[in-house]
Amino acid sequence: MQQPILILGGYGNFGKRIATALTNGRTAAPLPVIITGRDADKAAALVRELPPGMASFACFDAFTDLDQKLAQLKPAVVINTCGPFQDSDYSIPQCCIKHAIPYIDLADGRDFVTGITSLDAEARDNKVPVISGASTVPGLSSAVIEHFSDAFSVIENCTYGISPGQKAERGLATTRGILGYAGKILKPAVCQKIPRYGWQNIFRQDFPVLGKRWMANCDIPDLDLFPQKYAIRNLTFSAGLELAPLHLGLWILSWLVRWGLPLKLQKHAELLLRASNYFDRLGTADGGMFFRLSGQDKGGKAHIRSWYIIALDSDGPQIPTIPAIILARKLASQKCDLIGAMPCVGLVSLAEYLKELQPYKIQTYEQ
After folding, report:
1. Tell me, what DSSP letter sits at residue 265?
2. How far apart are CA 285 and CA 36, in angstroms?
3. Beta strands in the chain (DSSP E)
4. Is the pLDDT reported for residue 263 higher than 80?
């Protein structure tokens, strides 16, 4: 009998989408899951929504009780959605290594994802894969670069960013992560000389279908991973809110932090998230991501490629879940021989990604 996949934070914004995809069999054979969290009522409610017999739940604190629970439940794979990862340690993946259980997380914290290789020797000794960043960045972003890389002899510039729809469900962990570095100086990327600050350097980006939206600096692991992996000379990433008043309001708060006011915005993440929900009626449920690569083609001539992914009707939050879903299926069915601790760079192809997104209202555009 197939061992279940354990989803930490399984009833959260991303966890419930992963659970649904793994159990419903829409794009692959269904797999059983265990929904975990500290709220038994929420976990049980999600189990009732999933196909009968495909889900169960376990109520515990992943940071204190995981060792005992892994010995008891013996899952095939552990998927960790318990963000924000910016301030997390490696106790959860280390526990999975101890029990020789494959580990995947959806982390986007720069230091957390890039530092996961510190567990590589331990993971190799136990012959287990530990994968961090199985999400939009660096999971999808690396897939896009690898898809277009054959058209370039050298990629000189890579500019990309994400703008979710106002009505698309927003997670508290993601909100805390952004607020944690808004207005603070970001660690420079390779070859970067001009300092960058979180949620600053705002600009307008034009998206197919969506139109123009404000964007601002965000901190992601790609800034450390991609210049070395893909020899990219200049890399910039941004994110934006659909509604200008909310985007510009956070931009103003970022200046207050930059000027030295003792504001700890992440401590007010829940309040600010609730406040932003009052503006939902003014926005849409449509979001997107843009990608622009420039450099030289195989003949040494200037070459530019642009790519967009647009999600409608609240389907945008499906996009970050896809690498974890694909990798969990492979690991659970033993169709993947990965060993060691690594960021999720080049582990999922763009073709695999888009195939998994076919059931949703998501389209891509290329220039």
Report:
1. G
2. 28
3. 5-8, 33-37, 55-59, 77-80, 103-105, 129-132, 154-163, 203-207, 211-217, 234-239, 287-296, 302-311, 340-343, 362-366
4. yes
Which residues is 205 bridged to in the sheet?
213
pLDDT mean over 244-261: 97
Alpha carbons 32 and 55: distance in angstroms, whole number: 6
Nearest C-alpha neighbor of 79 from the set 319, 320, 328? 328
Span 270-295, mean pLDDT? 96
- Asked if the bond preceding 84 is cis, omega within 30° of 0, the reply is yes
- For the question of whether the overall pTM of this predicted structure is more than 0.90, the answer is yes
Contact 208, 365 (CB under 8 A): yes
Residue ranges and CATH numbers for the domains of the chain are 5-135+318-348 (3.40.50.720), 137-311 (3.30.360.10)
Q: What are 296-318's pLDDT values in tens digits?
A: 999 999 999 999 999 999 999 99
Residue labelled with tokens 């896809």: 322
For the chain, give the mean pLDDT: 95
Q: How confident is the model at residue 343 (pLDDT cuts 50, 70, 90)?
A: very high
